[in-house]
From TrEMBL:
InterPro entries: Nitroreductase, Nitroreductase-like
Source superkingdom: Bacteria
Coiled-coil spans in chain: none
Matches recorded under SUPFAM superfamilies: FMN-dependent nitroreductase-like
Nitroreductase domain sequence ranges: 5-44
Protein name, UniProt field: Nitroreductase domain-containing protein
Amino acid sequence: MEFVENLLQAVDIARQAPSSHNCQPWKLVHIEDRRMRAQLLPAHAWAEHGQLLLLGIDRKRTLRALPSLALEMQLSCGMFLGLLSAAFDALGFHCNWHWLEMLEAQAPAAMPFLQSLEQGHGCRGLVLLALQPQRVPDATAFAGLQDSVRQRRTHRAPFAEGSCSDVVLAQLLERHWPEQLTGDQLHLRVERSPALIARAADLVRQFAALDFSSYRAWKETYRYLRFDPRKPAEDGFYLHSLMGPMSPLRTRIMQCVLAPEVMQVLRIVRVPHNMAAQLAALVEDSAQLLLCSLPSDDLASTVMVQAGARLMEVWLNAQRLGLALHPLSVMLQHDRARGQLQRLAGGNGRIVFFARLGAIRQRHGECLRRPLAAIIETHGETV
Ligand SMILES: Cc1cc2nc3c(=O)[nH]c(=O)nc-3n(C[C@H](O)[C@H](O)[C@H](O)COP(=O)(O)O)c2cc1C
């Protein structure tokens, strides 16, 4: 099989990764140009039949309304990288990750070449993925992965009754992917204490309105809401996947009510606060919360991307166990909210991901994704 066919299959899996607002901020450059490859990586770093991919954050797709979204872009790309690597592994490739932050220190001469690549392809590079065909493809592993990523969805409805046993929680956190990919920095904690969950829900009640009432942040979110299910889209989310099924008339009304300018006016009658209260009720009703933190506030992009890959591994474990996640990023996007949540969690690290966790009650089939051709670019041979 031609490498390009493997690449398409792997990206078809990776593009199912979750991302903030479903903005899918990733770009993948297949570096075919031998001279460019030689400038970026020393010859010993890879073999003759190897292939090289650059994963970066697509500058045009980057969310920017709040500073913390920069971290979310890295986490989202890490999730993409996790799935991409797992897919290549099932296809029989050996993967090697060259983190660009480290390359900067190790091979400064490569930097101008990297920069020209980034400029030419409109992205901020994160990692070079070197691939080497090594084994026969494992069709069963590939089909299993494909099935899990297609089934996995963000679960915004109430969860099914019941909490997870210790055995299930241990399986949830199991490691299957190499540490070179997922790092060892992300600390995951599943909170089951009803008292703590109730206090976290109070914080959500207190702070989640910030999401809806900040004009700048909400304007960016609103751009990703899709109101007409008949209109094809490749990113963002349909309103009914956020708020449940609704009639066309109600959808039209919500389109007006949620418009950023209208939302500003509705602050007077505390509509954002009512929406925050609904979210808090969902949190209160959850049997578990997932809190993920990193040791320090110095969040290098490598650490963030690795954390994203680790989260993806856990999210897939969850899917296979019949569990689902619902991230609540608003609590991390504002310093005061995050500070209070961190104090409640009692840790001294920085929380980078916070979600409800519970048993899947209903499956949502819908998922908007960009076409493969929009994700992959080729940096070809120059003559
Ligand atoms: C870093 C990150 C933050 C997210 N934050 C939220 C959030 O605050 N609220 C929410 O409802 N979904 C959140 N999501 C879920 C995305 O909206 C979801 O992944 C995307 O719409 C694609 O849908 P899917 O996960 O069902 O495939 C987040 C996802 C990621 C990766």
